[in-house]
């Protein structure tokens, strides 16, 4: 009876231990899956450059590992893009940090022309000139105000680049470079309006890229 009782006790103890062990292994597997998922999310989050500065946190970090300290000295120029068509008289500071969406790089020239180029070849897809009075009848302006980046927004097949030229915010179709006329008035919004001051005397020039939250830009 004692041996049987002891045997049952030992057997019961083994069951308890096995249950704890399986629970521990299950927790470890669950933890591994969670950590792997978090790692995958991190790779996806920092493996692109869809926002100026690499992310909305503007940490200027990329998780891509093709280039490191061992091979960076072997990098060569792949292509050169002249944003002002190699016109040496169109010089000025360019402070825009480009973004890359689906293999297309979007940036702004010193004369604040918005351009889209193939990120692999440097071939221009289109260019939007805010000083073009034909393509931009309402808001055309020849400006050299500061611009430090552009913002991408999409909803379904509607893909846009939002960027500022002085006090005017433009919405440009990311596929063909045309103004989105349904945005604001004829594709633009004047940031001087609604401030409660004389618009003709107001000076507005954003010094950082616009940010978008849902369908609002800031």
Describe the overall structure:
By secondary structure, this protein is of the alpha+beta class. It contains one helix and ten strands, in the order αββββββββββ. The strands form three sheets. It has a four-stranded antiparallel sheet with strand order 1-2-3-4, with no helix packed on it. Strands 5-6-7-8 form a four-stranded antiparallel sheet, with no helix packed on it. The protein is globular, with a radius of gyration of 28 Å.
What structural keywords apply?
218 residues; 4-stranded antiparallel sheet; 1 helix; disordered N terminus; alpha+beta; 21% helix
Low-confidence stretches: 1-5, 8-26, 31-41
Mean of residue pLDDT values: 81
What would you call the structural class? alpha+beta
Shape type: globular
**Helix-strand topology string:** HEEEEEEEEEE
Distance between the termini: 80 Å
Report the radius of gyration as a whole number of Å: 28 Å
Largest sheet: 4 strands, antiparallel
Q: Largest sheet, order of strands side by side? A: 1-2-3-4
- Helix % is 10-25%
Q: List how many beta strands DSSP finds.
A: 10
